[in-house]
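Sample pair:
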Amino acid sequence: MVAVNDDRKLAMARKIETAFGGAKGKTIAVLGLTFEPNTDDMRDAPSLVIVPELQAAGAVIRAYDPQGAREAHKHLNIELCTDAYDAIQGTDGVVILTEWNEFRALDLGKVKAALKIPLVIDLRNIYRPAQMAQAGFRYVSVGRP
């Protein structure tokens, strides 16, 4: 079962790389590092596989997690940011790894203005594709067209 979960996380890392047209030289904002929202629990967190894979492919990671930043920093060599907008500022795109409520309520205009490229990869499907298209994003989600 662990191997299946790790394979799925590696597949998600490849999905992210593909969406960026390769990770080399890209700066990627990662929102959510913990296993699930409302905790600092890093056990089995997808970020523990996905983030190092992206880094190995040449990406620089800027990350924010509302409660798990301190715990995540023990496991990941990443730049931790003070909030979601700080993490997103000047990056080539954003990846949502944990479905924290505050990520559901992001000001999409502010997000788009902060990004170099309006790319959102939502591995938790917290946004509707039509909403993101209307806001001017290239939106990549899981299990949806």
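The domain at 2-140 is CATH 3.40.50.720 (Rossmann fold).
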